[in-house]
Amino acid sequence: MVAARFGCVAGRAVLVTNSLTSYIDIEKFSGGKLPSDPMLCIERWSEVCRLADSLASAKTDQLVALDINELDCPVPRPRQIFAIGVNYKAHAAEMNHGLPKEPLVFTKFPSSLNRPHGQIKLVGEKCDFEAELVAIIAKGGRNISVTDAWSHVAGLCVGQDFSDRALQYANTPPQFSLGKSRAGFTAIGPYITDTATLVTRGNLEMTCRVSGEVMQHTQTDDMIFEIPDIVAYLSNICELFPGDVVYTGTPSGVGAGRTPPRFLRTGDVVETTIQDLGTLRNTCI
Ligand code: ZN
Q1: Helix, strand, coil proportions of the chain in percent (round to 5)?
Q2: What is this structure's pTM?
């Protein structure tokens, strides 16, 4: 069994085939049993995965050639976007933060969502990159236990937490949410990969390149709080809903932590890759 890959093209939910060269429209392939709206499909994740298991039976004329630039954000209207700060030990050191005792949580407002290959409009001189593993909630709830947490997750995708450091650190103490919510600063995708069959979900290789130069490179098992810990912690405070987005923090190597700092410049191409999950490619304008 191969993990389902769930994407969005022209506002409609699609399944990307294993070859990554084509996709199929979920509503049409299911004969109308599943909706075209990606948010409604995520609520019915187990049915989506069952449909993905039957992809081999799809007729050739149902498949559409995939142009990766056509993919939209796979989670177009999340009710909540959570993000964890300082969740890799080496990143905590480069930003001069101590290790947190509990997850340090902020939000990225949904109006900042971007396409997997969308453009980033830089603002000021201190826009930065943060490669992150992102979890998408399928089954919401409160008081989810650590042991149950993976069963509430639909899948994983690649995320970029673009950050305006000037805005983030304009005051003392710093404020995270607005500095990470400028237009297009929340890139997610290229698709959601189902985690139920993804044996590597607890330890994935993640790389961020800026204009070809490797800036961040880690294994995700270097996280301080892992996805089940984060889901359990958040759900003890906030109710989680299907389609909620959880950014899990960035490793070391961000522009602000380098000597000298390396902030984003017009024309830079930010490529964020996670093993088995795909690549985001965002161009700075
Ligand atoms: Zn971040």
Answers
A1: 20, 35, 45
A2: 0.96
Q: Does domain 81-284 have CATH number 3.90.850.10?
A: yes
Give the residue extent of every domain in the chain. Answer: 5-70, 81-284
Model pLDDT for residues 189-200, shown as the tens digit of each residue: 999 999 888 889
Alpha-helix runs per DSSP H in the chain: 26-29, 38-43, 45-53, 89-94, 165-168, 227-235
Give Cα 190 to chain centroid, integer Å.
Answer: 9
55: tokens are 């992809």
10-65 residue pLDDT tens: 999 999 999 999 999 999 999 999 999 999 999 999 999 999 999 989 998 999 99
Contact indicator for 246, 105 with CB cutoff of 8 Å: no
For ligand 1, the distance from its centroid to the CA atom of residue 133, given in whole angstroms, is: 10
Cα 254 to ligand 1 centre (Å): 10
